[in-house]
């Protein structure tokens, strides 16, 4: 028995019955009522002296989800200008968006005119397994095989910065855009490089990735690279409608020139053929939309027609 509870029960019983004069109760029937009273005092004392029951801690709610972390790149206050495409590789870094065009090349001129943009092609700079900076882009005419058999063009490939601007395509002008969110840029670059392992990408100029994401074009590919970073929608909040009221005449004129379509062929026929090729859609992400926007800073402009290399403040 609990000795403290016994002591307390005795004291309470003797205080209630002074006639007992501190004697112990007998086990006979004479003290039966007193024993019952004493037992109540004992139980009360036992409960009072017992340690409090263990308290089960309430579950701690998980912390609220963290907002996406934006790691801002150092502010770019100076735009570099060069007339030598070989200089560009000295400036680019992982996640940069690169644009180029070739003056006098029919398709490049047509795409630039249709998109109301100085550039006709886009890519993203990534760092390969050797630590080298390369440009990953989607471009037509690259050899590859279907994973299910047969052959086709594998659109996505990594090439050197010099190849993108100089050796392979001979760009006459171009630019480098740097995303303001460095973490997003790095993530987008890593995703783009991973796609070079997939042989099933097909180059298709008319935005059919609304149905099949493996069919794409250059600016669309860069846009998809930023898709999981939370910045793509801010970079390109709305696609350009090639057949909108303000763009239709310009688009049709560019296609007519590119395809050498005679004036006797109506604009309506050209528009009808365009919509047939594009599966009824006329929305398009232009190179300038993905490379020149509120989420990127222009860090370099290249033009082979420049007479000098210079730097100027924005």
Q: Descriptors for this entry?
A:
about 325 residues, alpha+beta, endopeptidase fold (from Nostoc punctiforme), 2 domains, eight-stranded mixed beta sheet, 14 strands, about 20% strand, disordered C terminus
Secondary structure elements and pairings:
Elements: H1 3-16, H2 32-49, E1 78-82, E2 97-101, H3 106-114, E3 121-127, E4 133-138, E5 143-145, E6 151-153, E7 156-160, H4 161-167, E8 173-179, H5 182-194, E9 202-203, E10 215-216, H6 218-225, H7 232-235, E11 240-241, H8 248-258, H9 267-277, E12 283-284, H10 287-291, E13 296-303, E14 310-313
Parallel strand pairs: 1-13, 9-10
Antiparallel strand pairs: 1-14, 2-3, 2-8, 3-4, 4-7, 5-6, 8-13, 11-12
Helix pairs in contact: 1-2, 3-8, 5-6
Q: What's the short story on this structure?
A:
The protein has 314 residues and is of the alpha+beta class.
Could you explain how this protein is built, in words?
The radius of gyration is 39 Å and the shape is rod-shaped. The model is unreliable at 66-70, 143-151 and 308-314 (pLDDT under 50). A hairpin with a 5-residue loop joins β5 (143-145) and β6 (151-153). It has ten helices and 14 strands. The chain has two domains: 3-49; 78-239 and 285-313, endopeptidase domain like (from Nostoc punctiforme) (endopeptidase fold (from Nostoc punctiforme)), CATH 3.90.1720.10. The chain has an eight-stranded mixed β-sheet. It is of the alpha+beta class and 314 residues long. The termini are far apart. Helices cover 32% and strands 19% of the residues. α1 crosses α2.
